[in-house]
Amino acid sequence: PPPEALLLCSVGRQVERKGTAWFVDAVMPRLPDDVHYWIAGDGPQSSAIQAAIDRHDLSSRVRPLGRVSNETLSQLYRGADLFVMPNVPVANDMEGFGIVLLEAGQCGTPAIASRLEGIRDVITEGVNGHLVSPQDPDAFVDAIVQYRDHPKALDAAARRTRRHTEDTFGWSAVADTYLAVLRTLHTGEV
Question: What is the distance, to the nearest Å, from the Cα of residue 190 to the centroid of all Cα atoms in its chain?
Fold first, then answer.
């Protein structure tokens, strides 16, 4: 994208619950022209994503990347301004913990994500991103646009995201949590 553009990215197997086709269809047409969206991953929704791109003439702003190498994935996370996880509710198909949110966070990429299932266990509102109502285009637009004209706020969010991810989900933090649980189980004290 152009250097002054705001770059969004999503990563994952493109299935209905990931909400990528919905996001391209319902949110991207409402965002300013300098907001671009790159999508890594493939799957059964790839044709629906492409159809949404074509329907709204978004080929200059939305780029499906397909499957990418780990090196390219790292570059994508580091090059993006915001990570988007626009999951939608699908019966009998829940989102798990959201490892991609940790990968993005480790690279300092704050997230705008649907307030659903395992995603809520990763995002701390206003710290490493924002949780919005699923399938609410206005909420996604508002959360994204707040960073568009505020590079200092975006830089601060990136620093908070990286620090929060390391402090909360790094090996030391995870080991401390396990030790605390094991001590509680052993002693029976809370």
Answer: 34
Residue whose tokens read 């399938």: 135
Which of 58, 105, 56, 57 lies closest to 85 in space, CA to CA?
Answer: 105
Please say if the pLDDT value at position 189 is more than 90. no
Q: Residue 171's pLDDT band (boundaries 50, 70, 90)?
A: confident
Query: CB atoms < 10 A from the CB of 69, how many?
Result: 9
The distance in angstroms from the start CA to the end CA of the chain is: 52
Question: What number of residues does the chain have?
Answer: 190
Q: Which residues contact 158 (CB under 8 A, 6 or more apart)?
A: 108, 109, 110
Predicted confidence band at 178 (pLDDT cuts at 50, 70, 90)? confident
Spatial separation of the C-alpha atoms in residues 175 and 147, rounded to whole Å: 34
Model pTM score: 0.92
Q: How far is CA 91 from the centre of its chain?
A: 21
> Alpha-carbon dihedral of residues 113, 119, 123, 128, nearest 10 degrees?
-50
